[in-house]
Amino acid sequence: MFIKGIKIGLRAVEPDDAVKLYQWENDVAIWPVSATIEPFSKFTIQQFADGPHDIYTQRQLRLMIVEIESSVVIGAADLYDFDPHHLRSGIGIFIATSHRGRGLAAETINLLLKYCFQILLLNQVYALVDAKNTDSLTLFTKCGFEKSGLQKQWNRTGNATFSDVWLLQKFNA
Predict the structure, then answer these.
(1) What is the percent of the chain with per-residue pLDDT over 90, rounded to a whole number?
(2) Which sign does the torsion angle of CA 111, 5, 93, 23 carry?
(3) 104-124 burial string, b = 16+ CB within 10 Å, else e?
(4) CA distance 6 to 25
(5) Phi and psi at residue 22, in whole multiples of 5°?
(6) What percent of the chain has pLDDT over 70?
(7) How far apart, in whole angstroms, are the C-alpha atoms of residue 10 and residue 112?
(8) pLDDT tens-digit map of 30-73
(9) Contact 20/118 with Cβ under 8 angstroms?
(10) For residue 148, what are the contacts with CB-CB under 8 A and spacing of at least 6?
(11) Predicted confidence (pLDDT) at residue 19 exceeds the cutoff of 70
């Protein structure tokens, strides 16, 4: 693990992670928050797991969240829309349902912030959170993010229906 916390650690994606990633990426229940609109094939997921993971060339980075005590992969963390010129990145996390409610998401965000601010030397990290997702809004504000603006009708949720999304930002102090 390259970043280790108290209960969890973050590490690079390994080829063996493809099975879990395939399961999570194809769970239609989380598609609305991940902007996914079609399933991923096992081949595509395996290519991703086997492929390069350089944030500067891919402009994104996925890290696996591992519970330290059990060494079990419990989720994934993403840095996306990485912009090395403006020194910012989007952030997203996924914790498997059976591991939620134990403070692991907050620890994950704080470890990611440490990586973003101390290693990548970013000026800011942001998250886009559906206005109705009170759990995620509470989580990000608890981790020091501030609401910066409401994007009205930002995400399509159905036929002619849309949801508002909050832009939350955390600056490198």
Answers:
(1) 62
(2) positive
(3) bbebbbebbbebbbeebebeb
(4) 27
(5) -60, -45
(6) 83
(7) 8
(8) 655 656 566 667 776 676 666 777 888 889 998 999 999 999 99
(9) no
(10) 126, 167, 168, 169
(11) yes
For residue 51, the 8-state DSSP code is S
Phi, psi of 74 (to 5 degrees): -115, -5
- pTM here is 0.87
Q: What is the mean pLDDT of residues 138-146?
A: 97
Contact at 8 Å (CB) between 112 and 10? yes
* Host H or E run for residue 18: helix 18-25
Q: Say how far residue 2 (Cα) sits from the centre of its chain.
A: 17
In the numeric block, which tokens belong to residue 148? Answer: 């910066």
Single-letter code of the amino acid located at 129: V
Give residue for tokens 């102090």: 173
Q: What secondary structure letter does DSSP report for 39? A: P
Comparing C-alpha atoms, which of 10, 30, 8 is closest to residue 102? Answer: 8
pLDDT at 109 over 70: yes
Q: Who contacts 143 (Cβ-Cβ below 8 Å, separation ≥6)?
A: 106, 109, 110, 113, 170
Q: Alpha-carbon dihedral of residues 57, 58, 60, 61, nearest 10 degrees? A: -90
Domains along the chain?
3-122 (3.40.630.30)
Residue 157 structure tokens? 């949720």
